[in-house]
Design goal:
alpha/beta, Rossmann fold, seven-stranded mixed sheet, 5 helices
């Protein structure tokens, strides 16, 4: 994805969530709602939304399943770049300040083997989503803890230019040796040019490391933005 040349009115700046803030969220239910080929098909209600974005093959579907405690709610494909629609999941929790919200799975970016015509459709789709969805409360930005790509830095900068402060998640941390994790996370921070005040959540869909911390960050983002 490249920063767009199209200019929109700037969104109100959304503060980054405080990592781990608030009690652990008790999940009541999580269900697939719908897939949308355009923002015109997105829900028209005022339910708050949290969007997940990341490079193809970053482990987004697996992490969504781990977050929502469902094995196959988000479809995990062996073919990177297969998700080409905006997928909505409706989530209910026991938290009085976070009764209901939508977790939104956005198409992955940056997979070279996908047809160029398809890749060119993704950036405008996500661009329009971020520009139009006033229900959006936060963006969970996923980056592979092991493999850093130029597209990650470009996308992070683009999100910031759109007025968004994403929750940054380093995925597949279980595949990084514990002796190397500090170095890997430091490299990620440098790659995205993060200052020390911006947290990075190390997560694993396999070991569930960081899942509760991510829940805390999502809760904080949604509640604080009301």
């Amino acid at each position: 994805m490249r920063p767009s040349t199209v200019r929109y009115a700037p969104l109100r700046i959304r503060k980054a969530a405080r990592v781990g803030d608030g009690p652990i969220v008790k999940l009541l239910s999580a269900d697939f709602l719908k897939s949308c080929a355009s923002t015109a098909q997105c829900p028209r209600d005022t339910v708050p939304e949290v969007a997940c974005v990341g490079r193809s093959n970053v482990g987004k579907s697996s992490l969504i399943n781990a977050l929502l405690n469902r094995k196959a709610l988000a479809k995990v494909s062996g073919t990177p770049g297969k998700t080409r629609l905006i997928n909505y999941f409706v989530v209910h929790t026991a938290d009085s300040s976070l009764r209901r919200f939508y977790l939104v799975d956005l198409p992955g970016y940056g997979y070279a083997k996908v047809a160029k015509s398809v890749r060119e459709q993704w950036a405008p789709l996500m661009e329009t989503y971020f520009a139009e969805r006033t229900q959006l409360r936060s963006v969970v930005f996923l980056v592979d803890a092991r493999v850093l790509q130029p597209q990650d830095a470009l996308t992070h900068r683009w999100l910031r230019e759109m007025g968004l402060e994403p929750i940054i998640v380093a995925t597949k941390i279980d595949k990084v040796a514990r002796s190397q994790r500090s170095r890997s996370l430091a490299a990620l921070r440098a790659h995205l040019q993060l200052n020390e005040s911006i947290p990075v959540i190390a997560c694993s869909a396999v070991s569930r490391e960081g899942i509760e911390v991510l829940w805390g960050a999502i809760r904080s983002a949604v509640v604080d933005d009301r």
